[in-house]
Amino acid sequence: MxxxxxxxxxxxxxxxxxxxxxxxxxxxxxxxxxxxxxxxxVPVVERRVVERRNLQHILLMLMRMSLLLLxxxxxxxxxxxxxxxxxxxxxxxxxxxxxxxxSASMRSDGYLGExxxxxxxxxxxxxxxxxxxxxxxxxxxxxxxxxxxxxxxxGQVAVARGRLALIEPTYESxxxxxxxxxxxxxxxxxxxxxxxxxxxxxLTDLQAAGLEEGVRGLVPLDVELRFIAVGGxxxxxxxxxxxxxxxxxxxxxxxxxxxxxIPSSDFTVRLVVDGRSIEERVVxxxxxxxTLVVDYPGSSVRAxxxxxxxxxxGERQRHLRAYRRRELVxxxxxxxxxRGSRGPPTTASGHARTRALDTR
Amino acid sequence: MPPRGNRAWTHRLLVELARQVPGGRTDTVGTLRxxxxxxxxxxxxxxxxxxxxxxxxIEHLRLLRGRRHDVLVLQxxxxxxxxxxxxxxxxxxxxxxDREQFAVPDAVRAGYLENRQRHFDTIREACLAAExxxxxFVTHEPLQNGFRRFLRRRQDAVxxxxxxxxxx
Lengths: 360, 168
Fold this sequence. Notes:
The structure holds 2 protein chains of 2 kinds. By secondary structure, chain A is α/β, with parallel strands linked by helices. Chain A has 3 domains: 3-29 and 48-78, no CATH class; 83-229, 3-Layer(aba) Sandwich (Rossmann fold); 237-341, Sandwich (Immunoglobulin-like), CATH 2.60.40. In chain A, 27% of the residues lie in helices and 29% in strands. Chain A has a 6-stranded mixed beta sheet with strand order 4-9-8-5-6-7. A 3-stranded antiparallel beta sheet of chain A has the order 10-11-14. Chain A is elongated. Chain B has one domain. In chain B, 54% of the residues lie in helices and 17% in strands. Chain B has helices at residues 7-19, 28-36, 54-66, 79-83, 105-129, 143-167; strands at 43-48, 70-77, 90-94, 100-103, 133-138. In chain B, the strands form 2 sheets. In chain B, strands 1-2-5 form a 3-stranded parallel beta sheet, with helices on both faces. A two-stranded antiparallel ribbon of chain B has the order 3-4. Chain B is globular. The model of chain B has no long low-confidence stretch (mean pLDDT 85). The A-B interface holds A 29, 31-46, 49-50, 53 and B 49, 51, 53, 78, 80-81, 86, 88-97, 99-104, 107-108, 111-113, 115-116, 119.
C-alpha cells in the first residue's frame, strides 16, 4: 500500500540528524593529561578496549540520529493510503466489485459512456480466477451482476460485461455512503471468501473535494477502495435536491444547493419548467460542504403547473406526486429543472439536474 | 641534615622540611647509602608514598631494622590514588618520569585498585614481620586525625610489648 505524509514539510526536521554528528565531531576529546603519582599499578589498556569504546560512541551517535529521524518522521505523520484516486490498476486475483455512478451529473459530456468504457477495461483485465460484481448507484443502489449468490453465473466476468449495456443514467444525486455500504454488505454476505483480496472500484465523476471524509471510515482494512475518476478535473457545486411541496393552498419549489469547493461568491439559481425560465434567485453559499435551501414560493410554480391546464387534473396530480417523490425530471409530459450560474460566461457545471451551477 | 639531639636543631629541621619542594625521582641507592651510615639504635621516620617496587621497599626497611633502628613508616596517599576517580578516558602522566599512559577508567579501575591493594598488603605484612610501625595518611584528611590514630596504635603496641616482656 502506498505511503504518504500528512505534513511532509516537517520532514525538514531530518536535518536535525546532523546535530549528533556535529557534536560527536566537536567533542572528540583531546585526551586530558592528568599528572599521576605512579603508573606502576595502571594496567595497559588493550587495543580492543579502545576500539570497543570508539564503536560504542559511534553506535550512540547513530542511535541519537535515528531517534531524531524517527521523531521527524512521526511529526510528518505518515499514513497508508487506502483511497487511491484515479487508479485503474486491477492487478491480483480476488473479488472485485465495480460501482458505477449513474447520478444525473454522469449525463454530462458523455461521462457515463466513459465510465462504462473504463468498467469494460477493468473487466478485460480480469482472469478466470477473479470474481466480479457490478453495482450502479446514485441515491439508491442496484445490483446488476451479483458477486456472490446461488446463481451459477454469479461473479462471472462475462455476466458483468453483459450487464454493462443495461446501465442508464438517472436524475438522482449521488450518495456515496449508501453505495459503499451496499458494496460492503455484498462482501459481508460471503464470509468464506475472506481470504481473497477484496477490491471496490468506484467509477464516478465526483472530485475529491466532493468526497465525504466519512467514506474512508466506512471501509474495513481488508477491503481496498479505489476511486476511478471520469471526466476532467473541475469544481464542484450542485443543486443537490429539488422538490415541490405544499404551502397551504399554494405550491413551493424547494431546492437544496450545495457548494463543496468553489470560493465564496454569488450563484444565480434559475427555476426552469419545460425549458422556460420561471424565476431566478441570486444566492451566496460559502465553500466547504455548505448547503443552502432556496424556496420558490407561490404563483410562479403554480403558474408553471397550471400552464398545462388542458391536461386532465388526474395527470397534473401525477406530476405533483412525482415531484414529491423527488423524481423531478423525465416524466412523460414535463420536466422541471433548476439551473444555476455564477454569471457570464455560462458553461456547464458538474453535478446537477442539468448542469446546475456553472463553476468551470 | 644529620641527626642531632638538641631543640634548636629540631627547629632547623622543621624549617628545612617546610622549605622542601617536591620534585625529581626517588634516589633509592643514595638514600640507602645515607641511612646505612647513620649510627645504630636510632629512630628512623620514613615519610613516603611507598610507590616503589615492593622488593626495594622491603629491602630498605629490613636494612634499617637490621641496624636496630626503631622504624616508623608514614605512608602518604592521595585520594585519587586510592579510588582512581576518573570518569573519562585520560592520559596519565607519571610525576616521577616521562612516561604517559592512556587509560580508560572503566576498563582499568578494577585492575589498578587490585594491584595497589596487593602492593601495600605485601609491604604491611613485611612491616609486621619486622616490627615496623606503618600508618597511612591520606592527603585530604586532617593531619591530626592520622597522627592521633597512629600514636594510639603505637602506644597500644608499646604497652602490649611491655606486658609480654613482663610475663616472660
